[in-house]
Prior knowledge:
Blueprint: H1 2-26, E1 38-46, E2 49-56, E3 64-69, E4 72-73, E5 75-77, E6 88-94, E7 103-109, E8 114-119, H2 130-152, H3 155-160, H4 166-193, H5 203-227, H6 232-264, H7 272-290, H8 300-311, H9 313-323, H10 327-348, H11 362-379
Antiparallel strand pairs: 1-2, 2-6, 3-4, 3-7, 5-6, 7-8
Helix pairs in contact: 2-7, 2-8, 2-9, 4-7, 4-10, 4-11, 5-6, 5-10, 6-7, 6-8, 6-9, 6-10, 7-8, 7-11
Amino acid sequence: MWMLGLVAVLLLGAxxxxxxxxxxxxxxxxxxxxxxxxxxxxxxxxxGVIELTVRNTGPDPVQVAQVFVNDAYVDVTGGTDPIGRxxxxxxxxxxxxxxxxxxxxxxxxxxxxxxxxEIPAAVATPRAGPGFxxxxxxxxxxxxxxxxxxxMMFLPLLRRAGGGVVRVLLAVTVGLLAFLVVDGTAExxxxxxxxxxxxxxxxxxxLGAxxxxxxxxxxxxxxxxxQQPAGGNSARGFRLALMIAVGIGLHNLGEGLAIGAAxxxxxxxxxxxxxxGFALHNTTEGIAVVAPLTSQRPSVPRLxxxxxIAGAPAILGALLGAAVNNAELSAFLLGVGVGAIIxxxxxxxxxxxxxxxxxLNARTLGGVAAGMxxxxxxxxxxxx
Length: 384
């Protein structure tokens, strides 16, 4: 059987090689002008200089002949050679830009095609350094770790509510997570649409979601195999809380990435409004983490660990977003968060039924709706 498989692979390789060598010669050349497409992946503003990193997202090589800023011709350094398919180049434009002013950069290719890039409001790009990364780490702590830990402090109150309320709390958790799925998908698709589609565009969100879903499914099966001998609801409750924390953590990684990127290009206003808004919004994530733990008394180190798993990825995301500022990476990681949360929702849904084969009652459905509404309303408080 192995020999047959090897022969099939060799035949396939030989056929592809023959097509690559001979197939193109048998087809006529494409008629019409070259297809030239460039996507601006990164904009860096320093005093008197606008630096653009561009990628060729089309099938044909592109050579930038001239560059205009607000219809004024500017001197350009770099990008003198043609940019091949999926290749990148850095263009350094000598232009005395002013803080807060809008600019339209027009790239004229050698064939006469015009590619435009808009800078809504020019802001100096922060320099990477200890102070800069310290601000990003502090920002990730404010929007990730602290709100999640604050939400987890509601565990004693949730425990006193009684066992009959647990199912409704889990339904609220499903609503919270469902809103994160919708929010993450919308944000990821929006980012992907601005990348030029060189690496798949919105397909990056789907790819990230699928990979995260499959990975977490495998991790869940492994955890079930390890905890089944111990038995009891305690092990199941902690496993579910851990999976919720992981799913929210991956979502916060993508959220932190978007926050860091927005700060790097001057689209994010830091201040008390931002901190309070995210504290209100992400505190609900902490409640979702501890909802499966109402019937047990986990230790403080375990709770802190769950909080760090759910909130700390926001720090890494903010650092990556501010330093790298890559829309494709942001879209992919937002998709990873979406896939992880979908997998967690699928684990929680069976616990919402009162018995095998029963449908969700009105109280449970109301809990799901309440969770989504809470996330929506607290999201309005985020001033970004």
